[in-house]
Backbone:
């Protein structure tokens, strides 16, 4: 493990519990995303790892050494969120300066600076003063700065903030290259769609607690499904008649009074709630004979599986009914769906209030998420 934390806590004055027993594992050679709402404790955790903030308690290691070991930081590259460089320096001088602070030899600094400026796409500006740089160019320069010491672990706080779409694509490609080189990339960002494209694993922090962590594949198992969109007859589209036609075609029978008389091909009623499938108004729920949950709403059939075999009889039934299939899509929850699931109290259905817990002892949070994190 590049980062292996167990029970990290930080209490500020006024009994502000910024971190409440954080346990987290970051594997070597992966892109790891740290997510959470404002005030969740993300920045505090990064500052603990970089020894900027002293934790109240901390058991864990970073790069194989206890957290806080000073010499380990020489193998870490760091880009803070609101970084500032001396505006009277040129881009090349900035990299030379920070390379010198990291103990890189002068000849090696010059070689790395030229290569990194070219890699982040601002080599033409290397002799221009930073005061003339745009926000996106300063961000690119910041990433180059974080790589000057040839780190094993790269920690980036909002690396694509203020960067245009082309720049974000370039930065994503750079993260992939770093991973292919065997480096570990630790990203803190609110751009969930960006993280979803490149992260191997993620952790979501809510009120100083890890609400969930793991691979996106594992975390989205609960909502993987197929969606079959059917072209309904014009007179029945969106209405009860169209819905019943779709039910007969797909082999799902409605729940409720009289449903036992409406048995369809290979389908049984489902009394329990349908977990992981979107259920809107006027939706009809059911279950295939093979056990997969089914939700029919409007002209869409949702089947709770990522295995294509169980949906084939449903497709056949739709075709036998003379209906056209507009689309068959394999779906899963997005990283944004995971995020929203983590920030909602499962007991009340309300979003957790922003910020850290105040005045509560460890182990007695007022709104601690109940979802267990997976290593």
Residues:
């Amino acid at each position: 493990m590049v980062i292996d934390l167990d029970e990290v806590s930080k209490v500020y004055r006024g009994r502000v519990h910024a971190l409440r027993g954080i346990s987290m594992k970051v594997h070597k050679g992966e892109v790891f995303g740290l997510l959470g709402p404002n005030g969740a404790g993300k920045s505090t955790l990064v500052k603990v790892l970089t020894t900027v903030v002293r934790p109240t308690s901390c058991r864990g290691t970073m790069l194989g050494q206890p957290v806080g070991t000073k010499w380990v930081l020489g193998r870490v590259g760091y880009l803070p969120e609101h970084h500032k460089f001396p505006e009277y320096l040129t881009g090349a001088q900035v990299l030379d300066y920070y390379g010198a602070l990291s103990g890189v030899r002068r000849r090696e600094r010059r070689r790395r600076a030229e290569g990194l400026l070219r890699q982040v796409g601002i080599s033409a500006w290397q002799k221009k003063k930073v005061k003339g740089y745009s926000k996106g160019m300063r961000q690119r320069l910041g990433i180059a700065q974080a790589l000057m010491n040839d780190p094993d672990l790269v920690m980036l706080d909002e690396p694509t903030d203020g960067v245009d779409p082309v720049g974000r694509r370039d930065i994503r490609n750079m993260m992939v290259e770093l991973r292919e080189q065997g480096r570990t990339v630790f990203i803190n960002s609110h751009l969930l769609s960006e993280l979803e494209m490149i992260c191997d694993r993620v952790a979501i922090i809510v009120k100083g607690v890890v609400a969930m962590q793991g691979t996106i594949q594992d975390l989205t198992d609960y909502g993987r499904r197929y969606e079959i969109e059917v072209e309904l007859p014009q007179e029945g589209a969106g209405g009860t008649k169209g819905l019943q036609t779709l039910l007969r075609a797909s082999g799902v029978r409605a729940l409720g009074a009289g449903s036992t008389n409406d048995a369809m091909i290979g389908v049984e009623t489902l009394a329990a709630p349908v977990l992981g499938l979107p259920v809107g108004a006027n939706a009809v729920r059911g279950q295939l004979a093979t056990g997969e949950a089914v939700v029919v709403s409007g002209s869409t059939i949702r089947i709770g599986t990522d295995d294509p075999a169980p949906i084939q009889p449903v497709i056949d039934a739709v075709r036998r009914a003379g209906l056209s299939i507009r689309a068959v899509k394999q779906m899963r929850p997005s990283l944004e769906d995971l995020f929203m699931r983590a920030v909602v109290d499962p007991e009340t259905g309300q979003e957790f209030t922003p910020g850290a817990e105040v005045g509560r002892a460890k182990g007695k949070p007022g709104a601690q998420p109940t979802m267990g994190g997976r290593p």
Notes: The chain has a mean pLDDT of 80. Residues 165-180 form the longest helix (16 residues). The CA atoms of residues 205 and 211 lie 6 Å apart.
